[in-house]
Amino acid sequence: MASFQRAAVFSLVLMSLLWGSSQAKDLLVGGKTDAWKIPSSESDSLNKWAGKARFLIGDSLVWKYDGQKDSVLQVTKEAYAACNTTNPIEEYKDGNTKVKLDKSGPFYFISGAEGHCEKGQKIVVVVLSQKHKQVGYVGSPAPSPVEFVGPAVARTSSASNLKGGLLVALGVLVLGLF
Ligand SMILES: *[C@@H]1O[C@H](CO)[C@@H](O)[C@H](O)[C@H]1NC(C)=O
């Protein structure tokens, strides 16, 4: 195979990898519109939802709530643990809050309504870096790339599983060509 063709195939695969991981998503916190409230039980908790979702740099979290009664505070790890609403990093109370996850690592949010955080209205999401994801696919074209282990990394969508599978298959194909 001419080296030009190899280069072309390689670029195509690289582009599809980049494209596949750069699609930013809006994620409704809790998975439904009335989810920003005191959870009725442990199994209903927001962190349970976060544990099943997958967050990448560029995705946005979206909250829908009554801005007269509640708010969203982005806080430090310490304030999250202590439910300290005094000096949040950011405060949102417009009832329709969107926060872009612009870096990897944990993001902490608590309710600004008095007493709500103590009763479980809080959430931590761990954002995966896209670089990490790409390295996983390119470096190990096995069916189960090892990913960052944290409270919020499980894949839920079968569509994204399928896409991941296709990318892995493409990777194997290209490795075979070289
Ligand atoms: C809450 O945080 C503020 C500063 O962010 C601090 O001054 C205050 O002592 C904290 N309150 C409690 C109860 O920890």
UniProtKB/TrEMBL annotation:
<keyword id="KW-0472">Membrane</keyword>
<keyword id="KW-0336">GPI-anchor</keyword>
<keyword id="KW-0325">Glycoprotein</keyword>
<keyword id="KW-0732">Signal</keyword>
<dbReference type="GO" id="GO:0098552">
    <property type="term" value="C:side of membrane"/>
</dbReference>
<keyword id="KW-0449">Lipoprotein</keyword>
<protein>
    <recommendedName>
        <fullName>Phytocyanin domain-containing protein</fullName>
    </recommendedName>
</protein>
<dbReference type="InterPro" id="IPR041846">
    <property type="entry name" value="ENL_dom"/>
</dbReference>
<keyword id="KW-1015">Disulfide bond</keyword>
<feature type="domain" description="Phytocyanin">
    <location>
        <begin position="25"/>
        <end position="129"/>
    </location>
</feature>
<dbReference type="GO" id="GO:0009055">
    <property type="term" value="F:electron transfer activity"/>
</dbReference>
<feature type="signal peptide">
    <location>
        <begin position="1"/>
        <end position="24"/>
    </location>
</feature>
<keyword id="KW-1003">Cell membrane</keyword>
<dbReference type="InterPro" id="IPR003245">
    <property type="entry name" value="Phytocyanin_dom"/>
</dbReference>
<comment type="similarity">
    <text>Belongs to the early nodulin-like (ENODL) family.</text>
</comment>
<dbReference type="InterPro" id="IPR008972">
    <property type="entry name" value="Cupredoxin"/>
</dbReference>
<dbReference type="GO" id="GO:0005886">
    <property type="term" value="C:plasma membrane"/>
</dbReference>
<dbReference type="InterPro" id="IPR039391">
    <property type="entry name" value="Phytocyanin-like"/>
</dbReference>
<dbReference type="Pfam" id="PF02298">
    <property type="entry name" value="Cu_bind_like"/>
</dbReference>
